[in-house]
Design a protein that fits this description.
The chain has 569 residues and is an alpha/beta fold. The protein contains 17 helices and 24 strands. It folds into four domains: 36 residues; 157 residues, Alpha-D-Glucose-1,6-Bisphosphate, subunit A, domain 3 (Alpha-D-Glucose-1,6-Bisphosphate, Chain A, domain 3, 3-Layer(aba) Sandwich), CATH 3.40.120; 228 residues, Alpha-D-Glucose-1,6-Bisphosphate, subunit A, domain 3 (Alpha-D-Glucose-1,6-Bisphosphate, Chain A, domain 3, 3-Layer(aba) Sandwich), CATH 3.40.120; 124 residues, TATA-Binding Protein, CATH 3.30.310. The longest helix is centred in the middle third of the chain and has 19 residues. The two termini are 36 Å apart. Strands 17, 18, 19, 20, 21, 22, 23 and 24 form an eight-stranded antiparallel β-sheet that branches. A seven-stranded mixed β-sheet has the order 1-2-6-5-3-4-7, with helices on both faces. Strands 9-8-10-11-12 form a five-stranded mixed β-sheet, with helices on both faces.
């Protein structure tokens, strides 16, 4: 507590605004726990950049923490690109203070002689990723906390390739930030270096999205879509992109169309949560729509609901959406003819089904750590290969390489193409998914996400993962554990034979058990939220589509057994 108090008192100097000093003094005198939580550490960069609760303190998103990060990034850019005219582009989402914080960030960049393109109004994260390369910028920033609760905001950093920063670059930037004192932040902006952007970049982005996501499938006139932006940024892009691709039957949920950082109609603006899409699904049932699409606040995550075998709307999970999108892209490429250099990609906690599918098509398959920055890095690392598409279980997908992050705009269009074509062929999105299970194996996944807030929560997460590693599971649902993959040590060990193999992926706090029957259990802490996550993947053969319900129930029962065995119910 002594160090925390010492840190807090540094915020009482004349450099800090009077209101800030007053609040810090109040915390010192009246709220020791609040003081500790705000000042016990510096805000850290995770898988999605810097994200946290807004407020006073080193462990909060505010003028000074963002200013310091921007000053450190400015210093780093000037060192790496010495002698060049450095350019950055900034976007922001619907969250409280995103507009003003983005202006603050622009002023710090400009105060350091850096040219700034700033979107005049809120825009999607995929458009920011696109804009970095379109405007030939050295870096990009988006002010967003993605799907986190209303009290959060964040700061994602993109590099010149349009991809989020990865090691060792992120570490070098963090070092440049940590080397600074708050008093070294230059807040004196230069308006001549800040340029507002809007329709020109919008137009280019819309054209690129349609070019990558529109395959001129039949049945568009007869395909009914319900769309919700969940109070976020996708309202600026998805309706226009769908219109340009020829979709006329699009019903927008007006009560959720207005951008609002309070997200008043949902408990969480995260399409991974079924409740978030409930209003759109209700409307779809009412009007007989074929598909529901909904996005998170910055429009990188996409939720999709389609009609199941009973004709009821059902949300497909991120793994299922990824399988369908990749299968569609592979089929489209097959029609044109494979060139032999194509690849698809996913992450280590996503469904193994994608690898089985890639193998069946003779296409290169690559896997990465959680986070689209790692998939984006593959595109840069393997310029000789052609990236078709890739995704992860957390409702994200990337179509081609024109955006180097998960992109709910283009993947929303792609989902509609899949659904419209299936309906025109007398099938459906859901029936085509079952056909994929017959062809490549029936893989079913389940995610358990446990929230542990604050300092004690961080310690609890650390201990849970330690226990998971130090007390290894020997069997899962009656099948012996064969492989233990430890991404902290970069070693995969066959516990039945003693064989060890190196893991050629950067180190990360992830542990995966794989059994003899192919069941996989993965554990990792979230990089953006106070959560620990456990991923369960099971699989079996599905001989024919008519057996789907029976086999689906069997896999559900197996997942329940695994949850009970691991005491994760």
């Amino acid at each position: 507590m002594e160090n925390t108090l010492k840190t807090a008192k540094t915020w009482l100097t004349d450099f800090f605004d009077p209101a800030i000093k007053k609040e810090v003094q109040h915390l010192i005198e009246n709220d020791q726990e609040g003081l500790k939580d705000r000042f016990y550490k510096n805000m850290e960069f995770g898988t999605g950049g810097m994200r946290g609760i807004m407020g006073v303190g080193t462990n909060r998103i505010n003028k000074y923490t963002l200013g310091k990060s921007t000053q450190g990034l400015s210093n780093y850019l000037k060192e790496v690109y010495e002698g060049e005219e450095i350019k950055v582009v900034i976007a922001y989402d619907c969250r409280h203070n995103s507009d003003s914080l983005s202006q603050l960030v622009a002023e710090v960049f400009s105060a350091n002689g850096i040219k700034v393109y700033r979107f005049s109004e809120l825009r999607t994260t995929p458009e920011l990723s696109f804009a970095v390369r379109y405007l030939n910028c050295h870096a990009g920033i988006v002010l967003t906390a993605s799907h986190n609760p209303p009290e959060y905001n964040g700061y994602k950093v993109y590099w010149s390739d349009g991809c989020q920063i990865v090691p060792p670059q992120d570490g070098e930037i963090v070092a440049a930030i940590n080397a600074l004192s708050y008093e070294e932040i230059n807040f004196e902006g230069n308006d001549e270096l800040i340029e507002s952007i809007d329709t020109e970049v919008d137009e280019a982005f819309f054209e690129a999205s349609v070019a990558h996501g529109d395959f001129n499938v039949p049945g568009k006139d007869d395909f009914k879509i319900v769309f919700t932006s969940l109070h976020g940024t996708s309202i600026t892009a998805i309706p226009e992109v769908l219109k340009r691709a020829g979709y006329k039957n699009v019903t927008i949920i007006e009560a959720q169309a207005e951008p609002n950082g309070d997200f008043p109609t949902v408990e969480s603006p995260n399409p991974e949560e079924p409740e978030a899409l409930s209003m759109a699904i209700e409307k779809a049932e009412e009007i007989g729509a074929d598909m529901v699409i909904g996005t998170d606040p910055d429009s990188d995550r996409l939720g999709v609901a389609v009609r199941n075998l009973e004709g009821k709307m059902e949300i497909v999970n991120g793994n299922q959406a990824m399988i369908m999108m990749t299968h569609f892209l592979l089929e489209q490429k097959k029609k044109k003819g494979f060139e032999g250099n194509e690849f698809v990609a996913t992450t280590i906690v996503s469904t193994p089904m994608l690898e089985a599918m890639a193998k069946a098509y003779g296409v290169t398959f690559k896997t990465a750590l959680t986070g689209f920055k790692w998939i984006g890095k593959m595109i840069k690392d393997y310029p000789e290969l052609q990236f078709l598409g890739g995704g992860e279980e957390s409702f994200g997908y990337m179509v081609g390489d024109f955006v180097r992050d998960k992109d709910a705009v283009t993947s929303a269009l792609l989902a509609c193409e899949i659904g419209a074509q299936a309906k025109a062929n007398g099938s459906s999105f859901f029936k085509d998914l079952i056909d994929c299970y017959v062809a490549y194996g029936f893989y079913k996944e389940h995610l358990i996400s446990l929230t542990k807030k604050g300092i004690s929560g961080a310690e609890e997460i650390k201990q849970m993962l330690k226990d998971f590693k130090e007390n290894p599971v020997q069997t899962v649902a009656g099948s012996k554990v064969k492989w233990i993959e430890d991404y902290n040590t970069s070693v995969a060990k066959n516990v039945l034979t003693g064989e060890e193999k190196p893991i050629d992926i950067p180190k990360s706090n992830v542990l995966i058990y794989e059994t003899e029957d192919g069941t996989r259990i993965a554990a990792r802490p979230s990089g953006t939220e106070p959560k620990v996550k456990f991923y369960i993947s099971t699989n079996t053969e599905l001989e024919k589509a008519e057996n789907f319900k029976k086999v689906d129930a069997e896999l559900d029962a197996k997942i329940d057994r695994i949850k009970n065995e691991l005491q994760l119910g």
